[in-house]
Amino acid sequence: MLRTAIKKFSSITKGGESYIEKELIYGANNYSPLSVVLSKGKGIYVWDTAGKQYYDFLAGYSAANQGHCHPKIVEAMYSQAKTLTITSRAFHHNLLGETEEILCKTFGFDKALMMNTGVEAGESAVKIARRWGYEVKGIPANQAKVVFCSNNFWGRTIAACGSSDDPDRYKNFGPFTGLNFQIIPYDNIEVLEQALSDKNVAGFMFEPIQGEAGIVVPFTGYCTKVRELCTKYNVLMIADEVQTGIGRTGKLLCIDWENIKPDIVTLAKSLSGGLMPISAVLAKNDIMKVLVPGSHGSTYGGNPMACRVAQASISVIKDEKLVENSEKMGRIFRERISTLIGGQISEIRGKGLMNAIVIKSGKGAWDLCVKLAQNGLLAKPTHDNIIRFTPPLIINEVQLNESIDIIIKSIKEL
Ligand SMILES: Cc1ncc(COP(=O)(O)O)c(C=O)c1O
Question: What cofactors does this protein use (predicted)?
Answer without folding.
Answer: pyridoxal 5'-phosphate
